[in-house]
Design goal:
The protein is about 30% helix and about 40% strand. It has three helices and four strands; from the N terminus they run ββαββαα. By secondary structure, the protein is an alpha+beta fold.
């Protein structure tokens, strides 16, 4: 990933999180792991406290929009974010 540009950054005190939207220039669509690493390095947040909502790209371009929520702690993230069906089944 070459370049990162912040489009939108909003502090949401009700949910104790920062809501961000960034544009990343890359040769291929970044994976969730690559995006987590990029966000944790640039915003000084541990990867466990980041929830990636979307990674979108437009056809024929090397720009990808990443929408994510950065939480203050992992406990807050686990209380607010919806659980995926796979994770619920594993917990049982």
């Amino acid at each position: 990933m070459k370049e990162l540009k912040i489009l939108h950054e909003k502090e949401n005190p009700l949910f104790s999180r920062k809501e961000i939207r960034i544009i990343v220039n890359a040769d291929k669509t970044p994976s969730k792991e690559e995006s987590l690493k990029l966000l944790s390095n640039n915003f000084s947040v541990s990867p466990e406290c980041i929830s990636i909502k979307t990674i979108k790209g437009k056809f024929g371009r090397d720009e990808f929009t990443i929408t994510a929520n950065l939480y203050k702690s992992e406990d807050i993230k686990n209380r607010i974010e919806p659980k995926l069906k796979k994770k619920r089944e594993v917990a049982k």
